[in-house]
Amino acid sequence: MVAVEYHADLKEVQSDAALARVLGEGSGAAPFDRLEWWQMLATHCGKSPRIVVARSEAGYLVLPLEDTNSHLEGMANWYTFRLRPVASAGADREALMAAIAADLADRSHRIVLGGVPNEDRSADLIERAFRSAGWTVRREQCDVNHILNVAGRSYTDYLAARPGRLRTTLKRKSGKVDAVVLNHFDHEVWNAYEAIYRQSWKPEEGSPEFLRAFAMAEAKAGRLRLGIARAGGEAIASQMWTVEGGTAFIHKLAHLEAARALSPGTVLSAALFRHVIDVDRVDLVDFGTGDDGYKRDWMEEVRPRYRLDMYRPLAPQNWLVFARSGLRRLADIGKRG
């Protein structure tokens, strides 16, 4: 017997001790699987949670959704590396996801999930369950995730395998930049990061309050790795990483364009890679989403991320979408003809 329930108030989830344990530290060895992450999204990013929980005697499966007023979407934003269902150990993921897909059929005409991984078969699981429950499912790759499997290497061995231009840059610039890695939250360093970010090539920060709250929480848990690079006493680059469950996550990085000649971002990245590989001894480094060229210099593998768009085929709200899709298919056929 599977029961499906919905939570708009995350305090309800927190008050359920067994469920809170599933969504607590170590639940998925990543911040994006934790209740704390969704709470900060709601507090600082204006998200409206609709957390779906399927439970049976064998365990739980949780699908984090948000209500956008027009339809349901994954509870995520620009800081989220990936979105996936979170299951307790021993749970029957197939049966629990099937129950969620069937129950949602009476509650929403459309559900959109972005950034879904499939190295753990999450995308397959979701697609299979929703198709079986009568939903029309469109699945397409929407992004990529660059990673490094350390495979037991030391930092020296890892660096030896980097492109020659990267190693040359480090030899030429490392003596000109002072790079430091902190395992705690430092207000002065964080203020420097925010100042650097505002002057960097990066787009406007989505929610500085969210990121600061996240950094402070990760520092309290011992997971924060905060990097700062200086030249002549001036802060010119900063990065935020976290380490959890054998993985180092690269969340944010920025450098001053005026200091670009010193390659401060490259020097600081090297210091952080050295720290997480030789000190933290991680198994994996995760560079998040995006196919930026500089990621290829540091990473060695690329994993796809998928967008799953699920529709109730008979819902009037979806007819215009289907009509437009049909016209696009006819246009594509016409072009091929």
Topology:
Blueprint: E1 3-7, H1 10-15, H2 17-22, H3 35-45, E2 49-56, E3 59-67, E4 72-74, E5 86-87, H4 93-104, E6 110-116, H5 122-132, E7 136-149, H6 155-160, H7 164-173, E8 178-182, H8 187-199, H9 208-220, E9 224-231, E10 234-244, E11 247-255, H10 264-279, E12 284-289, H11 293-298, E13 301-311, H12 319-336
Parallel strand pairs: 4-6, 11-12
Antiparallel strand pairs: 1-2, 2-3, 3-4, 3-5, 6-13, 7-12, 7-13, 8-9, 9-10, 10-11
Helix pairs in contact: 3-9, 4-5, 7-10
GO molecular function, one term: transferase activity
Protein name: CelD/BcsL family acetyltransferase involved in cellulose biosynthesis
Keywords: Transferase
According to CATH, the fold-level topology of the largest domain is Aminopeptidase
Are there runs of 5+ residues with pLDDT below 50, and where? 330-337
Class by alpha and beta content? alpha+beta
Q: Give the amount of beta strand, in percent.
A: 25-35%
Tally of structural domains: 2
- Number of helical stretches of at least 4 residues: 12
Q: What is the gyration radius calculated from CA atoms?
A: 22 Å
Instruction: Please state the overall shape, judged from the principal axes of the Cα atoms.
Output: elongated
**SSE sequence, one letter per element:** EHHHEEEEHEHEHHEHHEEEHEHEH
CATH architecture of the largest domain: 3-Layer(aba) Sandwich
The CATH class assignment of the largest domain is Alpha Beta
